[in-house]
From TrEMBL:
InterPro entries: rSAM_sf. This is Radical SAM protein. It comes from the Bacteria.
């Protein structure tokens, strides 16, 4: 994908993209070789070209064919240092973690072992804990998390995200979301309740979600081709038309809407043909994520051509064409596998990247 730092600079100049974004796309797509004995790690990266702008990544390791190499101190491309590594740790299933300077809280508050899984999901590769917080524990857990983070309560938290994909039915998801909202209120948080899922789909369910207060639904679309082979059943059974309808119904109820999509699973033409129908029902920038193949088995699901950097830059430019006029813009702190970190359609992207 990238052969050297010189190749990186050549590609960036040819496509008129900043080289840092090109590097990050390739890094997420290729993973890295590493002496660290874990399949997946999270860490802060300071690129040598932008040392004062740290960013956060979660990356597949153990890719012997990657041009990137990572250890506890450095990131190298074809043997040449391109960045420094800080705070590396195993990407296990922590119960909760902060983004955006402790204004955004992500919860893994439901047991992940209930999830049958999608082929691109790294959870089955991890010796991770399997957290599940009982309803009576949620308020106490949030209070403890605040105290351990030097906060008296959660009044300053703008969003609490429930990101586990392990709810078998809509009613079970809504029951848990109501418990999370109650626990938020007990700790002074009146912010947005954000849910990533494919099970919240009915009009009755969306009505119930809207009644929970400020609500944000991220529908886990993921891909459009080969859905039965790639996705778990609850996701695969939703057609693209059905997903657009769900987001439209949610938008009508005042719910913030977007979706997740894995870049690298669909051919570009088919992806764009479907995605253009999502634009009118999307109210915040979607989570476009570069496909991370953690092993050779996962490689077989890449769409032909996506093993090249040129394919990814073509896709990025096509996606920019869909969303440039909407005013919606990506933020790296929301999505550490984004095709955009520092620029979008020639515009500088500002704000936190951790």
């Amino acid at each position: 994908m990238l052969e050297s730092v010189g190749h990186l600079q050549q590609v960036a100049a040819q496509w008129r993209f900043n080289p840092e974004d090109v590097l990050l796309i390739a890094l997420n797509a290729c993973g890295a070789r590493s002496p660290l004995a874990k399949p997946r790690m999270r860490f802060r990266l300071r690129l040598d070209s932008r040392p004062d702008e740290p960013l956060f990544l979660i990356l597949a390791l153990g890719r012997a064919d990657s041009p990137f190499e990572l250890d506890e101190n450095e990131l190298r491309l074809a043997g040449e240092k391109v960045g420094e590594i800080e705070g590396i740790e195993d990407d296990d299933a922590v119960l909760g973690y902060w983004r955006r300077g402790r204004r955004m809280l992500t919860l893994n508050s439901n047991a992940r072992s209930q999830c049958t899984g999608c082929v691109f999901c790294p959870n089955t590769l991890e010796d991770a804990s399997d957290p599940k917080i009982r309803a009576l524990d949620l308020a106490g857990y949030l209070g403890t998390l605040a105290a351990n983070s030097g906060m008296t309560d959660l009044t300053g938290v703008e969003t609490v995200t429930v990101c586990t994909g392990c709810f078998l039915r809509e009613d079970l998801a809504l029951e848990h979301l109501a418990e999370v909202r109650s626990a938020m209120g007990a700790n002074g948080c009146t912010g947005t309740l954000h849910f990533l899922s494919s099970v919240l789909t009915t009009e009755e369910g969306l009505d119930a979600a809207a009644r929970l207060g400020p609500f944000h639904l991220t529908l886990t679309a993921e891909c459009f081709t080969g859905r039965p082979q790639i996705l778990k059943e609850s996701k695969a059974k939703l057609s693209p038309e059905a997903m657009v309808a769900v987001l439209g119904e949610a938008k009508e109820r005042g719910i913030t809407t977007d979706f997740t999509y894995i870049v690298g699973l669909d051919p570009i033409e088919e992806a764009i043909e479907h995605l253009k129908r999502f634009v009118p029902v999307t109210t915040t920038f979607p989570r476009f994520q570069t496909y991370q193949a953690h092993n050779a088995f996962m490689d077989i699901y890449r769409t032909p051509g996506s093993e090249t950097i040129e394919w990814h830059l073509t896709m990025r430019r096509s996606l920019e064409g869909l969303f440039e006029d909407t005013g919606l813009r990506p933020a790296w702190w929301q999505n550490y596998r984004s095709p955009w970190c520092f620029t979008f359609a020639g515009e500088d992207l500002t704000g936190e990247r951790v």
